[in-house]
């Protein structure tokens, strides 16, 4: 099955700086990679996803990059703001024909004002 | 406002109690999921339903019993739970069960077993 590793587990950044979270996966057939943001007391919210036919996707201050050869994908948050403080999860399907997602253990991001 | 609503938000129960968690989605989706979220661990998939039919039972103990009466509602019936079952239980939905289907989560039920 798919094994997703996420690093770092905690990340503290100064407001305005960038934050980068990286995930690696084991199944080379995986082809869909979502990122979720979970604020305190809330459920995970999908913030961006990428499919294996593209290498990068941007949505305002958030971007995701995918390196299929190395089997890793990263979340980039630029110009961080206090409201970016949350736990971020990456995920990957357990195979090209499997709808079940394997999640990373999460990264707690703290943006210092 | 989330399209997936879970009730109750918090639940405290003894090991001999019977209770139910409820999930309702307002997104017109056909697939619904139950996940368990424990501290410092990745989300664990418990059950998957597609058009009210269970398509996945991820080796979950029988003290957890799901029910999906229609594509908008999902229940998780609980009985004789153990302290290690204390966790956040999340419901999610997606348009279909299939590849590349974004899942939308509710805010969860925080369950504490005494």
The arrangement of helices and strands of chain A along the chain is: EEEEEEEEEEE
Structural class of chain B: mainly beta
Radius of gyration of chain A (Å): 13 Å
Assembly state here? heterodimer
Low-confidence stretches of chain A: none
Helix fraction of chain A by DSSP (H/I, runs of at least 4): under 10%
Radius of gyration of chain B: 13 Å
Work out the helicity level of chain B.
under 10%
Mean pLDDT of chain A: 93
Identify the most extensive interface between protein chains: A-B, 26 and 24 residues
Number of helices of chain A: 0
Record field, number of beta strands of chain B: 11
How far apart are the first and last residues' alpha carbons of chain B, in Å?
Answer: 32 Å
Main sheet attributes: strand count, strand direction, barrel closure of chain B: 7 strands, mixed
Distance between the termini of chain A: 41 Å
Main beta sheet strand tally, sense and closure of chain A: 6 strands, mixed
Molecular structure report:
The complex is a heterodimer of chains A (113) and B (114). Chain A has strands spanning 4-7, 10-14, 19-25, 32-38, 45-51, 56-59, 62-67, 72-77, 86-93, 101-103, 107-112. Chain A is mainly beta and 113 residues long. In chain A, the strands form 2 sheets. In chain A, strands 2, 4, 5, 9, 10 and 11 form a 6-stranded mixed sheet that branches. In chain A, a hairpin with a 7-residue loop joins strand 9 (86-93) and strand 10. The radius of gyration of chain A is 13 Å and the shape is globular. Chain B is an all-beta fold. Chain B is built from no helices and 11 strands. Chain B has strands at 4-7, 10-13, 18-25, 31-37, 44-50, 53-57, 64-70, 73-79, 87-94, 104-105, 109-113. In chain B, the strands form 2 sheets. In chain B, strands 2, 4, 5, 6, 9, 10 and 11 form a 7-stranded mixed sheet that branches. In chain B, strand 5 (44-50) and strand 6 (53-57) form a beta hairpin. The A-B interface holds A 4, 31-32, 34, 36, 41-46, 49, 51, 89, 93, 96-106 and B 2, 4, 6, 40-43, 45, 48, 56, 90, 92, 97-108.
């Amino acid at each position: 099955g798919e094994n997703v590793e996420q690093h770092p587990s905690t990340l503290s950044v100064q407001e305005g700086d960038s934050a980068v979270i990286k995930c690696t996966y084991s199944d080379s057939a995986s082809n869909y990679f979502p990122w979720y943001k979970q604020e305190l007391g809330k459920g995970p919210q999908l913030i961006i996803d990428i499919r294996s036919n593209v290498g990068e996707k941007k949505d305002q201050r958030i971007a995701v990059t995918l390196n299929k050869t190395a089997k890793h994908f990263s979340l980039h948050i630029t110009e961080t703001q206090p409201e970016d403080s949350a736990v971020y999860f990456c995920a990957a399907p357990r195979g090209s024909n499997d709808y079940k997602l394997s999640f990373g253990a999460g990264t707690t991001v703290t943006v210092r004002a | 406002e989330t399209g997936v609503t879970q009730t109750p938000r918090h639940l405290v129960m003894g090991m001999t109690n019977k209770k139910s968690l409820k999930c309702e989605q307002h997104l017109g989706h056909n697939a619904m999921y139950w996940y368990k979220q424990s501290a410092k661990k990745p989300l664990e998939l418990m059950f998957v339903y597609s058009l009210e039919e269970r398509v996945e039972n991820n080796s979950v103990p029988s003290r957890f019993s799901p029910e999906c009466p229609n594509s908008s509602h999902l229940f998780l019936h609980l009985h004789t739970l153990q302290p290690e079952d204390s966790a956040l239980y999340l419901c999610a939905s997606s348009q279909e069960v299939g590849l590349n289907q974004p899942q939308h989560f509710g805010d969860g039920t925080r369950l504490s077993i005494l």
